[in-house]
Amino acid sequence: MLTPCDAAFLSSLAEKLPPGRLAQAQARHLEEPRGRYAGQPGPVALPQSTAEVATILAACNAARVGVLPWGGGTGLVGGQLMPKGPLPLILSLEKMTALRGTWPDENVIIAEAGLTLGALHEAATAADRLFPLALASQGTATIGGNLATNAGGTAVLRYGNARDLCLGIEAVMADGTVWNGLRRLRKDNTGYDLKNLLIGAEGSLGVITAAALKLFPIPAHRVVAMLVVPSPAAALKLLRQMEARVGGLISGFELIARTGLEFLSEVGPELRQPFPTPPDWCVLLELGLPAAMEPEATMAALFEEAAEAGLVEDGVIAASEAQAEALWNIRESLPEANRRVGAVSSHDISLPLAEIPGFLTEAPARIARFGQFRINAFGHLGDGNLHYNVFPLRGEDRSAHDPVRDAVKETLHDLVHALGGSVSAEHGIGRLKTDDLQRYGDPAKLAAMRAIKAALDPNGILNPGAVLPG
User: For FRET with 98, which of 152, 267, 304, 391 sits at 20 to 30 Å CA-CA?
Assistant: First the structure.
């Protein structure tokens, strides 16, 4: 049983920490992007070192006070907010932003968990290297949060998820023990993989305080194009055709539906779109090519071959970095347009690639019995991750569909599960999807997860109610 973070506990904790490490939570600590959850106003701890994190966790564990790890607050499944239950101590690592070292010849950088993803990109560029994790929220999202949720983003096809980009971590366990796993090794088979257990655990097994991350050479040439395709099935064939020609040089392959482009015209952000009439489907493609490959000739050959095969109907190829960024800005603005329209139900799903065309055909038919909707399906087609979002008709308020919201979600998730997919591709479980995890999770996996949680956090202080319900 947890106890609330009351004045007596805070007074005791303050004596163990330097001045200024405890404060009242600000609005940003209590809000999340979709407005589905609100945190409880209360205290926030702002440690500036791993030793201070250890002191805080040890004290909370002894007093059985819940700890709510907070990164940049950009999570979309409520993992960073605790709307109810005994008042927790919010633990923010926003003051822990140091770069502990860069080894360009090893393609390694070590950063503290509070550093934003955008700042890490700048540090990598300064070392003439690339850190490829790319998110629309990278100006706010932190390295600790990215790892805690195993963030995906637009470059997973080539470089992998956050887990794949991490060599080692430093973390503080529930009892305040510090695990120093900041090793710059590509191979290390010394026992259980604790690193990958904590990555993706959403702060429920330990608090990541720093990470050793992989860097990559910056591609000599960047080619960005937006191509009109006749269907999602054609987009998948296009991906396979291009992979056969340029191997692992495809950095991004994003599917975009007409609805998303119409939303941008309807509610903004106002952006110049490349096609006078939005196509039903298009693909945003990025190639990162070596110096030996001529970018214009390579893209022209790919486009010509795809057009001859009937896989591409039209397209624009960026002729400058500014044009490339403008095309990517269309893709990255889709979530903001979605937010302004207001979704009835939003879904972060993944499917076996071959099942995606069938899902996109079947899903609208299944939810039609609950009403008339607009659907904006877009996402990282190359790795099977779709953001499948259901909206009211133009002029309607989403609240009118509140009575069927849960039924829409369940219907879509049942279909995803039946097709061998996942109801959480890259956003995590948080508090939003704990019921989904129980409904669709493998019983053996769930039992193992509960046993691990009990072993590493026996008092249940770490992010209580997230991932596994209490």
Answer: 152
Mean pLDDT of the 425-453 span: 96
Residues 56-65: b if buried by 16+ CB within 10 A, e if exposed: bbbbbbebeb
Which residue type sits at 164? D
pTM of the model: 0.94
Q: Does residue 470 have a pLDDT over 80?
A: no
Query: Tokens 């994190």 — which residue?
Result: 53
pLDDT bin (cut points 50, 70, 90) of residue 152 is very high
- 3-state class (DSSP) for residue 38: coil
- Report whether 260 contacts 336 (CB < 8 A): no
Residue 303 reports pLDDT greater than 80:
yes
Q: Which two tokens stand for residue 421?
A: 């997919």
Give CB contacts under 8 A, 24+ apart, made by 323-328.
323/224, 324/222, 324/224, 324/286, 326/271, 326/272, 327/224, 327/225, 327/226, 327/274, 327/284, 328/224, 328/284, 328/286
Chain centroid to Cα 125, Å, comes to 22
Fold of 342-418: Alpha-Beta Plaits (3.30.70)
CATH code, residues 99-217: 3.30.465.10
- CATH pick for 7-94 out of 3.30.43.10, 2.60.40.10, 3.80.10.10, 3.20.20.70: 3.30.43.10
pLDDT of residue 149: 96
The fold of the 221-336 domain, in CATH, is Alpha-Beta Plaits (3.30.70)
CATH 3.30.70.2190 in the chain is located at 221-336
Residue pair 238/311 in contact by the 8 Å Cβ criterion: yes
Dihedral of CA atoms 24, 26, 28, 31 in degrees, nearest 10, equals 70
